Amino acid sequence: MLYFDHNATTFLAPEVTDTMTVALREVFGNASSTHRQGQLARQHLEQSRRTIARFLNASPAEFIFTSGGTESNNLAILGLVRNLPGPYKHVITTAIEHPSVLECYRQLEREGVEVTYVGVDSRGIVDAREVERNLRPNTVLVSVMHANNEVGTIQSIKEIAGLIRHRNVFLHCDGVQAFGKIGVDVQELDVDLYSISAHKIFGPKGIGGLYVRKGTPLRGIQHGGRHERERRAGTENVPAAMGFARAVELCEPSIADALADLRDRFEAEVLYRGGVVINGATPGRLPNTSNLLFCGLSAEALVIALDRKGIAVSTGSACSSGSVEPSHVLLAMGRSRDEARSSVRFSFGRYNTAEDVRVLIEAVTAFLSRLRANVRLERSLVV
Ligand SMILES: *Cc1c(COP(=O)(O)O)cnc(C)c1O
Predict the structure, then answer these.
(1) Rounded Cα distance, 173 and 59, in Å
(2) For the chain, what are the domain ranges?
(3) Is residue 44 within a helix (H) or strand (E), and if so which, with residue range?
(4) Which end of the chain is less congested by CB atoms within 10 angstroms, N or C?
(5) pTM for this predicted structure
(6) Which atom of ligand 1 is nearest to the CA of 69?
(7) What kind of architecture, by CATH, is found in domain 14-249?
(8) Ligand 1 within 6 A of 89 CB?
(9) Mutation to probe ligand 1, out of 176, 202, 286, 327 (largest number of atoms < 8 A from CB)
């Protein structure tokens, strides 16, 4: 099997499996318990927190564990906006956010909050000044994702922060795809809330985290014990936290160049065949992501053909695949519904080799040749 769908999820890095196998056996205590087993679990939990916080350039007290990126986004948005005073609240987000952000804002709309969805240009980039222009006196929160999961475009979070922070507006950033793939420094980005998840970086599913800048008036959205500084009730999943920290330690910034090399070689070979366009072709794109529009072709057909050869790729996001709706991200970038349905995402990971990519290129180009031969045949039959 060849796997090129890392933006949907990843398998466990072998080192993560090793750490977690031991932890699942031995670190079973409740981190809130006084006895030795409890204290051992607490120590491992706090050590994991320190590792991940350091990677974000945050203090450990500013990082809380959640069940994943979806929960982090829910906690950041609902936990902040519901806790802020005033009956008339306004928030701003973008048209290309992950559903776990967009659906929180839809929920807030039902609760009477006004929401502005700013658009993006044809490359998938949010104009920071457009965000600024939409600020109102009652704007309380802005959510802009760091890197897009479907096309890989990266937003200038720091520039947006510079334009809104003096207005007393909080800034939330969904960093699930950026974290571990590009350098992330929450101080430098100047964000208040930053969501991350383990399973996109060769860590386990079901654990993620939220950076909450000191002093941010965030209130938990699930109720129970006083875990995670009273912001996330529930017994902590310590083995998963340990696996998450191990996965973070394995993220080497130098991998980005090697990934970009693989990705660029792949794109050059496929684009050479003609009739193929890159969606979101920006220089600063995530190094592992390639979203290609195959003009006139059914993306689903290509995904299925590759799957028959044991090659995993996907159409758009995992959350919307299986549904017939075209990608909201590609539509926001100005692609037509047909173009969106002709687009396939290839997302590489650090265990992919040059040989893997050679096999992928061969499979894709063979598919294109076969298809075009059929089209020529059909045309010749018509004439
Ligand atoms: C995967 C993803 C999420 C959701 O994270 P989970 O841990 O799967 O809940 C949120 N945002 C983005 C950009 C993602 O790619």
Answers:
(1) 18
(2) 2-8+252-382, 14-249
(3) helix 36-56
(4) C
(5) 0.96
(6) 5
(7) 3-Layer(aba) Sandwich (3.40)
(8) no
(9) 176
